[in-house]
């Protein structure tokens, strides 16, 4: 009863309750997607499942094109963010100048500004650069908005790597590049993997910029979902089917990587 | 193999000077120990030699080449860290092979070098393990092995034994001595443990507050310390210091007035004058209990170590008390007053600024 290693029962109950509340919208979407439009207006759990909505969604829009854009934009921007963030975090963590802390805070502060505040300048910039409704444009925007998070997370994980290991490698004759490749990246891999996963999820979910800067050519899945909410009314079943199709890939990725993700998040806390 | 020269080497962080006027010559194949209390700058000096810290001023040469601006990776040195700094994701084999791989050596060459080092250090049966599966002593060996495989011209050791238990420390200390005998490479070793310094070094460099206090052989430092700091730092238990005033100065001695007596010290006192405040230094093993002794000390405690014992006493002229070494079978009870005699030829004398007067041999007639 008083086993100190065992959490009290109410913690378990609370945990499940919170998990259920968080999961509820996904659950409702998932069952609504298999209902007819008529059934979709009720929350009833008893209905005859049908794939009708999925058929209509596939008929009406080119799902694969949206998925392709989402994949390119989220994985591409994640790759670019990390490519810039890793060297930046390396230098901030291991060769901090007198302004390293301030630089980090400044980076984070850019995330505190509401995006809508810079919508018009960015829209105009994208327009004059010919980057409206282009995958390249979204890639650049996503890379930049995720960069502060990427630098911060990489910095945190690098801080956990003992400095002497890198110094030992330097004395062993390794260049800065070899230090990063052979020591820093392998030793902070769990952390960097969870950073990458978080960046992919953030980019995948990003709706503000994709809705404003893309319409057809570069439109990712967020635009695909939004297209089902139109002036003729909401079609809950089709909207749910589209949403399920949009979240399914990233949900699977999260499921597969959950172990790595948890390990990354607690990296350093448990040695 | 290489000699090393440091000329007016200096180190500052912003406006804080941590090392100054470091002048040192290290001969090829010499075993040099940097010793000093925590925060004296000894590790910083080692890291400057390694190339891990910038040299603010002065010049460092290894062999004939100026090294100030040569990156650590190109200095031809190997370093063993206090924390061992093994690469946690690599097997021992790869830990030791890493430097050679980076240097572009062939697989066969690497294999020979790693196996040879592993054999020297008795870790050849552990090569496919990872560092976390090893004990502290084994990790230490791997760290040394990693240094050996590269056949560096200089080895640097940064407090390599401080994370080991006492018994292992003694064992590894002997292995370091043997390693130096076998490899005959220049080694620089940093420690705050003066026993390690005394037992290992050809040459000891005593540092304090960012300065070199004295450079010399263990024998020189023990018997001819240049100043009060070195005298107090080298030797365990530390040297006794007795405050006094110069009473008279002879050709081969100085007579010092103590609290309730006088003491002759066999030194060249030409720098002193009568009435100067001075400090006599005498090691615990050189204080004897003798009815003719003029130092009347009161026993406070006795510490028995099996083959001998240390008696702790208080004495008016010695703020830190006096310690003497006695045979273990003798017993001195608390509060007993004993008369101590110090052989003038065994005493040191320090002037008010802390510098030692040169020791001489007392002529019989004194």
TrEMBL record, chain A:
Its main location: membrane. Keywords: Cell membrane, Membrane, Transmembrane, Transmembrane helix, Transport. It is found in: Cell membrane. It holds the Pfam family BPD_transp_1. The chain crosses the membrane at residues 7-34, 63-92, 104-126, 138-159, 180-204, 235-257. It is a multi-pass membrane protein. InterPro entries: BP-dep_ABC_trans_perm, MetI-like, MetI-like_sf. SUPFAM superfamilies: MetI-like. Residues 67-257 form the ABC transmembrane type-1 domain. PANTHER family: INNER MEMBRANE ABC TRANSPORTER PERMEASE PROTEIN YCJP, MALTOSE TRANSPORT SYSTEM PERMEASE-RELATED. Belongs to the binding-protein-dependent transport system permease family. This is ABC transporter permease.
TrEMBL record, chain B:
Gene3D superfamilies: 2.40.50.100, Nucleic acid-binding proteins, P-loop containing nucleotide triphosphate hydrolases. One of its GO terms (molecular function) is ATP binding. Keywords: ATP-binding, Cell inner membrane, Cell membrane, Membrane, Nucleotide-binding, Transport. The keyword Nucleotide-binding applies. InterPro entries: AAA+_ATPase, ABC_transporter-like_ATP-bd, ABC_transporter-like_CS, ABC_transpr_MalK-like, ABC_transpr_MalK/UgpC-like, Mo/tungstate-bd_C_term_dom, NA-bd_OB-fold, OB_MalK-like. PANTHER family: MALTODEXTRIN IMPORT ATP-BINDING PROTEIN MSMX, MALTOSE_MALTODEXTRIN IMPORT ATP-BINDING PROTEIN MALK. This is Sugar ABC transporter ATP-binding protein.
């Amino acid at each position: 009863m008083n086993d100190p290693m065992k959490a009290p029962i109410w913690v378990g109950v609370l945990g499940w309750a919170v998990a259920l509340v968080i999961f509820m919208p996904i659950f409702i979407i998932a069952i609504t997607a298999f209902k007819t439009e008529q059934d979709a207006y009720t929350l009833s759990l008893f209905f005859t499942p049908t794939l009708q909505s999925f058929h209509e969604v596939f008929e009406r829009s080119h799902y694969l094109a949206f998925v392709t854009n989402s994949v390119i934009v989220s994985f591409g921007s994640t790759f670019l963010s990390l490519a810039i963030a890793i060297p930046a975090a390396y230098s901030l963590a291991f060769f901090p100048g007198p302004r390293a802390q301030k630089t980090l805070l400044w980076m984070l502060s850019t995330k505190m500004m509401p995006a809508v505040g810079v919508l018009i300048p960015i829209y105009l910039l994208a327009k004059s650069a010919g980057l409206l409704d282009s995958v390249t444009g979204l890639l650049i925007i996503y890379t930049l908005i995720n960069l502060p998070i990427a630098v911060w997370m990489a910095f945190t994980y690098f801080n956990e790597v003992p400095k002497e290991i890198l110094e030992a490698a330097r004395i062993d004759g390794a260049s800065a590049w070899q230090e990063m490749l052979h020591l820093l990246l392998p030793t902070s891999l769990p952390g960097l993997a969870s950073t990458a996963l978080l960046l992919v999820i953030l980019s995948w979910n990003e709706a503000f910029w994709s809705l404003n800067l893309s319409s057809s050519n570069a439109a990712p899945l967020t635009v695909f979902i939004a297209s089902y909410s139109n002036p003729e009314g909401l079609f809950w079943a089709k909207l749910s089917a589209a949403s399920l199709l949009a979240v399914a890939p990233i949900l699977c990725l999260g499921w597969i990587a959950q172990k790595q993700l948890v390990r990354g998040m607690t990296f350093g806390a448990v040695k | 193999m290489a000699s090393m020269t440091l000329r007016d080497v200096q180190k500052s962080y912003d406006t804080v000077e941590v090392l100054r006027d470091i002048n040192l010559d290290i001969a090829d194949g010499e075993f040099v120990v940097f010793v000093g209390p925590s925060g004296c700058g000894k590790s910083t000096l080692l890291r400057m030699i390694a190339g891990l810290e910038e040299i603010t001023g002065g010049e460092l040469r290894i062999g004939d080449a100026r090294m100030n601006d040569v990156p650590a990776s190109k200095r031809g040195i190997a370093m063993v860290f206090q924390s061992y700094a093994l690469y946690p994701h690599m097997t021992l084999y790869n830990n030791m092979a890493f430097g050679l791989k980076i240097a572009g050596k062939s697989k066969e060459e690497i294999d020979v070098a790693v196996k040879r080092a592993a054999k020297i250090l008795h870790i050849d049966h552990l090569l496919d393990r990872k560092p976390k599966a090893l004990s502290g002593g084994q990790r230490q060996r791997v760290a040394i092995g990693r240094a050996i495989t590269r056949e560096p011209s200089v080895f640097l050791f940064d407090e390599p034994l401080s994370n080991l238990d006492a018994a292992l420390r003694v064992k590894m200390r002997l292995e370091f001595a043997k390693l130096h005998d076998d490899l005959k490479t220049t080694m620089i070793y940093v420690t705050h443990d003066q026993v390690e310094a005394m037992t290992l070094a050809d040459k000891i460099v005593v540092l304090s507050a960012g300065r070199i206090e004295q450079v010399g052989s263990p024998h020189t430092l023990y018997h001819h310390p240049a100043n009060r700091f070195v005298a107090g730092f080298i030797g365990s238990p530390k040297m006794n210091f007795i405050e006094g005033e110069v009473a008279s100065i002879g050709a081969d001695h100085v007579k010092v007035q103590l609290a309730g007596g006088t003491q002759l010290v066999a030194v060249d006192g030409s720098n002193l004058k009568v009435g100067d405040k001075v400090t006599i230094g005498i090691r615990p093993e050189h204080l004897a209990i003798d009815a003719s002794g003029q130092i009347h000390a009161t026993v406070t405690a006795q510490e028995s170590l099996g083959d001998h014992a240390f008696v702790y006493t208080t004495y008016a002229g010695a703020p830190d008390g006096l310690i003497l070494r006695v045979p273990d079978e003798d017993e001195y009870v608390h509060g007993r007053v004993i008369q101590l005699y110090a052989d003038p030829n065994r005493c040191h004398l320090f002037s008010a600024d802390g510098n030692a007067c040169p020791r001489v041999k007392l002529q019989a007639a004194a």
